[in-house]
Write a structure and sequence with these properties.
mainly alpha, rod-shaped, coiled coil, signal
């Protein structure tokens, strides 16, 4: 749909804002001095649909330009015809690009939010486990009084059994300590990864903004 440039810029801006409120109004041809506005996406499914439509629209614009270009070579005013065809193509692609930028930005923001929510949930679970361990500490082992002397063979067997029991207890405690350290390391790795990705997203966004300027 093309908005005729026959009224002041204020009226054009009002029509842009009205169009932005309608999800069906994804492609609007505006005068060169009015910035293209893409309706905001409200879900990942909608953003995916917009990108698919943008690809189709881009292909249609290129096909139309190729056809117009061939037709221009058959006319008397070839250069004027080609210039109009190029301007129409440029304007159409600018509108498509505005839709693509908005949809891609929404996708990146939603995916980043999902990762942040997953990381926050992992941190919440880790802190809950730590609080539970702190509230229910392992009871200290109470030494039993030494039994009365027994025959040598029985005493040897008992000492071996006690040694094996102590070894099992020590191994279990070491395994649990290693698991706690592993959980803490995994959480710290996730946190650092989230910080790194956020920095990369900010850097890429700044580079895109710089390229637009």
């Amino acid at each position: 749909m093309a908005i005729p440039f026959a009224y002041p810029t204020l009226r054009n801006a009002a029509m842009v804002l009205a169009c932005a409120a309608l999800s069906a109004c994804s492609y609007v041809l505006l005068p060169p001095n009015v910035q293209h506005v893409a309706p905001p996406s409200t879900s990942l499914a909608e953003a995916d649909r917009k990108l698919a439509e943008a690809r189709e629209r881009r292909a249609a614009i290129e096909a139309e330009f190729a056809s117009s270009e061939q037709a221009c070579y058959k006319k008397f005013f070839v250069n004027s015809c080609l210039e109009k065809a190029r301007e129409k193509r440029r304007e159409g692609l600018a509108v498509v690009r505005a839709v693509e930028v908005e949809a891609e930005l929404f996708q990146r923001r939603e995916k980043a939010n999902a990762r942040d929510r997953a990381l926050a949930e992992a941190q919440k679970e880790f802190e809950a486990e730590a609080a539970q361990r702190a509230a229910n500490p392992r009871p200290e082992r109470v030494e039993e009084p030494a039994p009365p002397p027994k025959p040598i063979a029985a005493q040897v067997n008992r000492e071996a059994a006690n040694a094996a029991k102590l070894k099992r207890i020590a191994e279990k405690e070491a395994a649990e300590a290693g698991k706690r350290a592993e959980n803490a390391a995994r959480f710290e790795k996730k946190r650092q990864e989230s910080v790194r990705r956020q920095a990369e997203r900010a850097k890429r966004q700044a580079e895109r903004e710089a390229e637009k300027d």
